[in-house]
Design brief:
The chain starts with a helix and ends with a strand. It has a six-stranded mixed β-sheet, with helices on one face. Strands 1-3 form a two-stranded antiparallel sheet. It has two domains: 122 residues, no CATH class; 197 residues, Histidine kinase-like ATPase, C-terminal domain (Heat Shock Protein 90). It has 375 residues and is of the alpha+beta class. The radius of gyration is 34 Å and the shape is elongated. Helix content is 63%, strand content 13%. The longest helix is centred in the middle third of the chain and has 72 residues.
Length: 375
């Protein structure tokens, strides 16, 4: 047996266990009903009912899967039966064949377990046979209908969840695709101003811009997420680019604990917050200031902060979160993490603005110290 076949069998084990438990419970109820209705021994009725019920399940479920596969081979132009269901007409035919055979097999098994000998269907009068088969067939139809409806409901829920995830991923891709042009336009606007003021510095800034965009675009297209270390590396490149324009007016500080550096993060998540801090906080400030970016663990959350010592959150568009940067980050957090993530913006103690976002932290070992690496 190949490894793939073994995995497929193991993946079906939970279904077999759940169905087996349900059939045992269902058959026990039928055995109890028969015992009370015809005044038979309770234990014997339950044993016979369970043996017949398990035999019915095995033959009916097996014939269902076999019929679905056979129909797909005979009629390849038709859509393959979903979830191994060949349709009610074929399923009723399977029941008519499987129930008498399952009754005989189940009765023979119960006879062996209890040390008894009952009449087979072939030795019983046709009226009694009809009554027994009618009860067994009715119970099989009801059980098949119940489990079929439950399976369809579970399948519908799974498909709805997959559709929801696909829609969320599509929305996330759209949001991420909007971020890169926004970042590029902001940088080019800064470069345009510098060209008129200081051409040599503008040339140096253009060289850094080319290198930065190459690294950033490659990182953003490498997948749905990258490490926190890579996110901070891209921010360090961007801040070095901005220092070509602002000079000593910009003092960046990046603090990333080593134990958090490998954590996954959506690419360019902090970029709009850093751009906002420079554009709306430090650039309007005559003396510029310090821009601090940090990461910390808070229980089951990862908290990321962007703090500047600039003019503070005085602009309504930034304070209310209606600007592109904050709105884009909030939308990405909501799409990927739902209610577990969020973002807040407030005036920082001592002046400036503090933006903090939090998201679920993957299961990693708790750090033993709080040492940070300075970039």
């Amino acid at each position: 047996m190949s490894l793939l076949t073994l995995r497929q069998h193991l993946s079906a084990l939970p279904y077999v266990l759940r169905m087996g438990a349900a059939i045992l419970l269902f058959s026990t109820g039928i055995g109890l009903f028969i015992s009370l209705l015809w005044d038979q021994r309770l234990w014997g009725s339950i044993v016979y009912s369970i043996c017949i019920g398990l035999s019915c399940w095995s033959l009916i479920d097996g014939s269902r899967l076999l019929s679905a596969r056979l129909m797909h081979r005979l009629f390849p132009q038709r859509e393959e039966p979903r979830h191994g269901w060949p349709g009610w007409p074929v399923m009723l035919l399977c029941l008519l064949v499987a129930v008498p055979l399952a009754y005989s097999l189940g009765s023979a098994l119960a006879d062996r377990l209890l040390g008894l000998r009952t009449q087979s269907l072939w030795d019983t009068r046709w009226r009694e046979v009809a009554g027994v088969l009618l009860v067994s067939l009715l119970a099989s139809v009801l059980a098949t209908g119940f489990f079929y409806a439950r399976g369809r409901l579970a399948a519908a829920r799974t498909e709805a969840e997959q559709a929801r995830r696909l829609a969320a991923e599509t929305q996330l891709r759209l949001l991420e695709s909007q971020l890169e042009p926004h970042m590029l336009f902001n940088t080019l606007a800064n470069l345009r101003v510098l060209i008129a003021l200081d051409a040599p510095r503008a040339q140096a800034m253009l060289d850094r811009l080319i290198a930065f965009l190459r690294a950033t675009l490659n990182a953003s297209r490498s997948g749905d997420e990258h490490s926190l270390r890579e996110e901070f590396a891209r921010l360090a490149d961007y801040l070095a680019l901005m220092q070509e324009r602002m000079g000593a007016r910009l003092t960046p500080e990046l603090q990333l604990p080593e134990e958090l550096a490998a954590l996954p993060l959506p690419p360019l998540l902090l970029q709009p917050l850093v751009e906002n801090a420079i554009k709306h906080g430090l650039e309007p400030h005559v003396d510029g200031g310090t821009l601090s970016i940090g990461a910390a663990r808070d229980g089951r959350l990862l908290r990321l902060t962007v703090r500047d010592t600039g003019v503070g959150p005085g602009r309504a568009a930034i304070q209310d979160g209606t600007g592109f940067g904050l709105a884009q980050v909030r939308a990405r957090l909501a799409t990927r993490y739902g209610a577990e993530a969020g973002l807040s913006l407030q005036a920082a103690e001592g002046g400036g603005t503090r933006v903090e976002l939090w998201l679920p932290l993957p299961d990693i070992s708790r750090p033993n110290d709080t040492a940070s690496s300075q970039t």
